Amino acid sequence: MTGAKKPKNDPLPPPPPTHKPKANKTGDFRDALSLYIEHPETNPEGRIVEYDDEFVVINDKFPKSSYASHSRPTNPQRASDLTFPRVHLLLLPRDPKIYYQHPLQYLSANPAFLAKVRTRVQRLKALAASELRRQYGAQSASDAPYQTALETLMSSDDPPPPEARDALLPPGRDWSREIVAGVHTHPSMNHMHIHVLSREHNSPRLISKKHYLSFNTSFLVTMEDFPLEEGSLRFRPGNWPNWDLKCWRCGMNFQNKMAALVRHLEGEIEEWKKE
Asked: In this predicted structure, what is the pLDDT of residue 69?
């Protein structure tokens, strides 16, 4: 790949193919994202948030944060029309030349593309933060000033449109601090995708140890970590599925006990909502 260099002593994974794998024609689940990338105008499975010529944004099919029921958006080109939770999003590049590039290599070696992705991610983080506020704002002590002022504002004779509200309201809780964005060292899907999600993991889709570790360890390379330096150990996470399970909020170590961690998180999430 142009501009990418391999570490001196421990080579990177083999470079991804530059053409569409034949496996896509056989129904390989790792190519499932192509459905959304190639035909977003059909709004496959009602998961399209928005799209243009360069990117598609979808709701993750197996969200690991703030999962809830949803309904089909009326206009998939407009994020404002989306009526189901936007707390685990995927940003998908639409350029076929980028599809199968290794995200760690490509984001590190292409500063213009990295800058473009960062701009998109910032907007999606704001979108996800807004959804967190919608779901949990009424339960949050630090968000009470915002919620009270919003109720007063919307009860007025001439309430302002959504785009004008924030300028008229106190800041309240900074929900954007609860959103993380990045890529996995070894992605589970073939097409490049960037995760944007809430860190609280209030989802029944969080089932396995790998699920948790992949979003709560250095296996997730955040957008702030890029570009990676040549030879960075982030390219080679080692035996990461055997790493200890640690609570994202309090740091308690559950070692290999996923069921115990999930029970613990139930209480942590409730306390997190009240912050």
From this structure: 40
